[in-house]
Structures are given as C-alpha cells and as structure tokens.
Amino acid sequence: ASAKKSTGMMDFHLAQNILKEAAKIGVSSIKVNWRGEPTLYPHFEQISRVAHSLGFVDIMLNTNGMYVNNNIKIALYNYYTTVVFSIDAYDTQIFRQCRSGASPDLIYRNFQEIAEHRQKYNKPEFLVLNHVRQKINWNEYNILKELCERKDIKFRAMLAFPRTDIELHDE
After folding, report:
1. Separation of alpha carbons 50 and 171, rounded Å
2. What distance in Å separates the CA atoms of residue 6 and residue 54, rounded to the nearest whole number?
3. Which of 25, 51, 117, 148 shows a CA-CA span of 20 to 30 A to 124?
C-alpha cells in the first residue's frame, strides 16, 4: 500500500470544527498561523469568515505579504483584528538578499494598502511590522521604524541569533 502524501494543509472541515470547539469552550483569541504562510491556504477567505462569525475578540495572523488575490485583502480588512507583516528591509536590493524569491514591490504595495485601509476605517485594529535584524539589513532598522512611526503602526524588531559579528546596540 502506498502512503498518502500530505499537502501540509489542514482539511477545511477540520479547521472549521476546531474553531467551533474553541468558540464553544470560550476561547476569545486565535492566531491563524498554519505552518508557513497562512494566505496560501486554499480556503483562507472562508476560514477567516468562519472565525469572524464565531465572535472571537481577537483574530490575528502573520504574513509575508506576498498575496495577490483580492479576496485575501478583503478578508484581512474585514475579519482580522491584528495583521503582522514580516518585512526585513526597505531597500529592494537588501530585501531580495534577505528573502530570495520574494517580490518586495508586491509586499510593499500590500503593506501600504492595508496601512491606508487601517487609517481610514481602523481595520485591522492593529497593524504590526516585524523586522528580523541581521548583518545584511542592520541599517534598515531606523528606516522601517520611522516609516511605522509616521503611519502609527507598531514596529517590532528581533535579532537573528546567533549573531556574534554584531554589537547589540542601536546606532
């Protein structure tokens, strides 16, 4: 007998049932992060709608921002209270070195659109930019931090460990 190959994606009905059970026992906050990028989930919009309809107080997710589907944008705008973007650089060349295969223009555009939507409608309630600080993008920290401050966006920076070649202090 051959083993069934796993796609790494949770069955929609299983995900839906987990959310229903969580709501039933009083869970108030969920984070929609499957292993990897949650917006790649084929039923992302539907499961987002289900989570929202169940009345969770907080519905959060982390994204790399590489989505192109308009339904994903609509789901992020309407169903999520917190959206966390992972952006490692403002400079496109440095960005490409940090995240090979990623499209910085698409990610920046998606981030800009959701930031504008938040300013206009206060949805999502919280928008966060996560920045993993490495030797290659060390000087991007202040640029991204200032961008977030101008737009009233929460900024979080983390160090990629282990880093023995960088002194741990701000410029």
Report:
1. 45
2. 29
3. 25
Question: What does pTM read for this prediction?
Answer: 0.86
Please choose, from the candidates 52, 46, 62, the residue with its C-alpha nearest in 3D space to the C-alpha of residue 23. 52
- In tens, the pLDDT along 12-69 reads 999 999 999 999 999 999 998 766 899 999 999 999 999 999 999 999 999 999 999 9
> Which one, of 45, 83, 46, lies nearest residue 65 by Cα?
83
